[in-house]
Amino acid sequence: MPTRRIIFSRLALDARIGILEHERRATQPLHVDAEIDVDITRDVDDHDIHSVLDYRALREAIVAVCTHSHVNLIETLTEQVAERLMKDFKDIRAVRIRISKPMAFSDCAAVGVEIYTSR
């Protein structure tokens, strides 16, 4: 079955993440990159948003998971985002999620974790 890829590049948000004491006291910036492969089940109707998977709903789900509660490890958060997308959106064939912390180290642009999962 053919697929279409929806891409989010550097979705920026503040989240409560980290296992260190100073990370538990305040939010910190995160960047989320996502590649979401969606089954193409019908032709795109340029006048009907329901003929495609609305990326606004995908973004809303990603933000909700990342900002819901404190998470200690970025690995856990990355898995939670992937699981939520696969559970809530049945047209998704595969997801690649990368979450990075741009303020983690002063000597690199960011450090992060990536997960890929498929049906």
TrEMBL record:
One of its GO terms (cellular component) is cytoplasm. One of its GO terms (molecular function) is dihydroneopterin aldolase activity. It comes from the Bacteria. GO terms for biological process: folic acid biosynthetic process; tetrahydrofolate biosynthetic process. Pathway: Cofactor biosynthesis; tetrahydrofolate biosynthesis; 2-amino-4-hydroxy-6-hydroxymethyl-7,8-dihydropteridine diphosphate from 7,8-dihydroneopterin triphosphate: step 3/4. Keywords: Folate biosynthesis, Lyase. Its EC number is 4.1.2.25. It catalyses: 7,8-dihydroneopterin = 6-hydroxymethyl-7,8-dihydropterin + glycolaldehyde. Transmembrane segments: none annotated. InterPro entries: Dihydroneopterin_aldolase, FolB_dom, GTP-CH-I_C/QueF. It is an enzyme of class 4 (lyase). Residues 6-117 form the Dihydroneopterin aldolase/epimerase domain. Pfam families: FolB. Catalyzes the conversion of 7,8-dihydroneopterin to 6-hydroxymethyl-7,8-dihydropterin. NCBIfam families: folB, folB_dom. Belongs to the DHNA family. This is 7,8-dihydroneopterin aldolase. It comes from Achromobacter aloeverae. The lineage of its organism: Bacteria, Pseudomonadati, Pseudomonadota, Betaproteobacteria, Burkholderiales.
